[in-house]
Amino acid sequence: MEIKFEYTHSKLIELSWPKSISPETLKQLIQVKKFLEHEYAEGIKEIRMGFHTLSLRLQLDIQKADCLELLDEINTLDFSDFEFQSDTWSIPVYYGAEFGKDLFKLSELLQLSEKEIITLHASKEYQLYFYGFLPGFMYLGGLDPKLHIPRKSNPERTVKPGSVAIGGSQTGIYPIESPGGWHVIGNCPISLFDIHQTPPVQPKIGDLIRFRSIDLQEYNDLKHLSKLGNYTWKHD
Amino acid sequence: MIKLPAYIHFLQPGLMSSIQDLGRFGLAQFGVPYSGAMDRYAVAQVNFILRNPKDAAVLEMTGIGPEMVFESETRIVFAGAEVEALLNGKGIKYGQVIEIQPDDHLVVKKIKKGQWAYMGIQGGFESETIAGSKSWYGSITPRTKITKGDSVCYLSEENRFYPPVETKAKIRSDWFRNSKIQVYPGPEWELLPKLLHNRILNKSFTISDMINRMAYQLEEVIAHDMEPILTSPVYPGTIQLTPSGKLIVLMRDAQVTGGYPRILQVENASLNVLTQKRTGEKITFNIS
């Protein structure tokens, strides 16, 4: 894949891949990020990810000519040196009722029954592209095209923490209360972000997420466990 | 030297007063904004005058300031926006060390010039350090802003053995009157037609009333037909072009990613200047 660079200034550059949301692009982003962290740890202050971009804040100054050299180096990289493993996490969700207040409306808009929406949503695996928008908010790829739906034209002032929602071609969970324009279909009882843990989140970039439909009893039990700090994240 | 914990008690909170330092770094990969003082230059000034560490936490204020009582003796300095403030009923000086005695009463009535005022305190404020920073930010720290009846800790020193910093070189606030903002091209700048480059660089923009710690929106509209981008990284100082043609300058509490084209990036020193602009003030962009 062709990689380009955008030069903002001597301490801020961006590597960009062709504009797409794809597992192949994500794989390269992760591998190049690993390479940079491995080879240029001292020169780099921070690497931020987007769907097809790596933004590099640098410790040292870089010139445009250096960027071209860096691109050459990346283009001749043996990616097999930077393999990574994706873990699969199961995230419990109570769908519908008062926890998914937009589910009924969504079923009208999508011409699908509530049950069909839940089944479609909970039967897929979603890949974690990066965190953004809010602390602990996962950008997930892989929503079934049957569930793609434009965002609300008027965003809600407050969306409850744990809300599982759909917007555009994406799905996600609001880790904290926030304004939001996505359609809420359920709620996740466990905490997704804890600033007092290192790292404050469990799934890492490239991991897979599966949503598991739970009943009210289990929702309440897990909510209680999570509040006490006794919920243990586990992956397959 | 014995340092004893003491508190400032807030009788009135002001409009949006919070404790800030230089920010929280290294957690953007998990979606956590940098936060930190809007005007970092002002923080550098108060901490220099007080001989504090560079990243000592300060009190940030905007609009209407708070009213407070000090428990114990210390020294404070004001910088950033100019304030109208009374200490025990008497006016205070900008950029100078002010000696504080137990039970002193300070009221910051309003911000006169600029947008964000700073009060530094000897040794810095002692609010909780979370993930390496004392900067208040909702969902990360217990408090987002000071509320009525709140208290914030500082360390009071009875004896001070070092001489105060020479303050003959008077600190002034006119540095932020500059209306020329230095910018760099953002990742999507080259996707704009040359005509719009010229329009943006030759236009004077007005600060709208939509200004807060996350972003400043500008009034003028730049009609364009750019597509939204796939969500990509953004920083404080990133200027986004919205579908309606408004420019949004991201500030310290900005999200770490965004979906609008990133047309420009404000240079660091200019970003401090820009934070001090008020609704209705004009700026122009100068590309480096």
From TrEMBL, chain A:
Family annotation (SUPFAM superfamilies): Cyclophilin-like
Domain Carboxyltransferase: 1-203
Keywords, alphabetical: ATP-binding, Hydrolase, Nucleotide-binding
Gene3D superfamilies: Cyclophilin-like
E.C. number(s) listed in UniProt: 3.5.1.54
Keyword Metal-binding (UniProt): no
Recorded GO MF terms: allophanate hydrolase activity; ATP binding
EC top class, as a word: hydrolase
Keyword Nucleotide-binding (UniProt): yes
NCBIfam families for this protein: 5-oxoprolinase subunit PxpB
Protein name: Allophanate hydrolase 2 subunit 1
Organism whose genome encodes this protein: Indibacter alkaliphilus (strain CCUG 57479 / KCTC 22604 / LW1)
Phylogenetic classification of the source organism: Bacteria, Pseudomonadati, Bacteroidota, Cytophagia, Cytophagales
